[in-house]
Write a structure and sequence with these properties.
mainly alpha
């Protein structure tokens, strides 16, 4: 695991964490189409959240996350 650098600690979060999830278009014509759309939507949100959680649980990101906790607690 690489050691965190000063540049890493001062950098903003990666842009992909701030982007909205890609969701399926709403193309429901009949009520019978709605359950399938809901399942597609849930699958897309689960995939998006899993990708973000995988990144945030990486040990190399821990110093970056800890930076925010210190600022929130009033420590600099």
């Amino acid at each position: 695991m690489p050691a965190p650098t000063e540049q890493m600690m001062e950098s903003p979060p990666p842009l992909f964490l701030l982007q909205p999830c890609v969701l399926p278009p709403f193309a429901v014509t009949y009520w019978g189409d709605y359950p399938q759309y809901v399942e597609l939507m849930r699958a897309a949100m689960t995939k998006c959240n899993m990708e973000r959680n995988a990144f945030l649980s990486s040990p190399s990101v821990a110093p970056w996350l800890a930076r925010g906790e210190g600022e929130a607690g009033g420590h600099n």
